[in-house]
Specification:
By secondary structure, this protein is an all-beta fold. Helices cover about 0% and strands about 50% of the residues. The chain has one domain (about 5-310): 7 Propeller (Methylamine Dehydrogenase, Chain H), CATH 2.130.10.10. It is globular. The relative contact order is 0.16. Belongs to the Vgb family.
Length: about 300
């Protein structure tokens, strides 16, 4: 097993629920706190800051936008939010009531694309807040995470339809059923190999789909680990969280898997990203962010004097 150093950086209390994480254009880590309705920011090695939204809005996935701001889905408030790197927040209600936005990612068209879990739709929002919605060909699909593909389309998981979907910039949707029944795909990202990599939370597997629809699946050593998020590093590897297994793992492009136990029991890892410092960072629902880097590349957590809240 590759030697990896893991450090946990407390950024909030355990009740706030750090959920998703991304690297912003300001070389800081930005993360959502789904239970307390806050957006957090951490420069590695410094103290965290956070901004309070509507406490019940349920922010889920967060992504950098083409305008230099961070965009996020407010799952319970049925809005899309935007926060600038200096903390100015704007929120945009969706046309469809109770849509339940969850995943969001920047597209190749200078807009943000997002999933509507309750409405079986994919949405598009321009940087000035104009929303367009595109219906999926099936009902009850529960579209979840979304990412920009190397082929110019947006690829997304269909958790309850057991499929991976693609939507083009013209709104045309194609659906690719998974070989494993009831696999429950959730997180998805684009790999350095140009393929889409995703996790199957119910099957305990990772998946890979090429732009022409060829699917490969890779069972995890612990099929009950409940993989949730996935992200690419700079070396062609994919890193993923195991929510129930209390682990973070990696997979090479040829399917070789390694897993790493997190130091704190029951910390519930969810989102994962490549950080501005070249390390892998994961959001833990116990109130921390975990940093994974090669041994010898440790970053000591800062001595916290209370979290700055704005």
């Amino acid at each position: 097993m590759t030697a990896v150093s893991i450090t946990e950086h407390q950024v909030t209390d355990a009740a706030s629920g750090p959920y998703a994480i991304t690297t912003g254009p300001d070389d800081a880590l930005w993360f959502t706190m789904v239970h307390s309705g806050r957006i957090g920011r951490l420069v590695p090695g410094a103290e965290p800051a956070s901004w309070q939204l509507d406490p019940g809005c349920g922010p889920t996935i967060i992504s950098g936008g083409p305008d230099g701001a961070l965009w996020f889905a407010e799952h319970r408030a049925h809005r899309i939010g935007r926060i600038t790197t200096d903390g100015k927040v704007d929120e945009f209600p969706l046309p469809t009531p109770q849509a339940g936005p969850f995943g969001i990612a920047a597209g190749p068209d200078e807009a943000l694309w997002f999933t509507e879990t309750n409405a079986d739709r994919i949405g598009r929002i321009s940087t000035d807040g104009q929303v367009t919605e595109f219906p999926l060909p099936s009902t009850g699909a529960f579209p979840s995470a979304i990412t920009a593909g190397a082929d110019g389309g947006m690829w997304f998981t269909m958790n309850q339809a057991n499929a991976i979907g693609r939507i083009g910039m013209d709104g045309r949707v194609s659906v690719h059923p998974l070989p494993t029944e009831a696999a429950g795909p959730v997180g998805i990202t684009t790999g350095r190999d140009g393929a889409l990599w995703f996790v199957e939370i119910a099957a305990g597997q990772l998946g890979r789909i090429t732009s022409d629809g060829a699917i490969s699946e890779f069972p995890l050593p612990d099929r009950a680990g409940r993989p949730h998020g996935i992200a690419a590093d700079n070396d062609g590897n994919l890193w993923f969280t195991e929510w129930a297994g209390n682990r973070v793992g990696s997979i090479t492009s040829d399917g070789s898997i390694e897993t790493y136990d997190l130091p704190t029991p029951r910390c519930e890892p969810h989102g994962i990203t490549l950080g501005p410092d070249g390390a892998i960072w994961s959001a833990l629902e116990n109130g921390s962010l975990a940093r994974l880097a090669p041994s010898g590349d440790e970053l000591p957590p800062p001595a916290l004097h209370g979290h700055r809240r704005r």
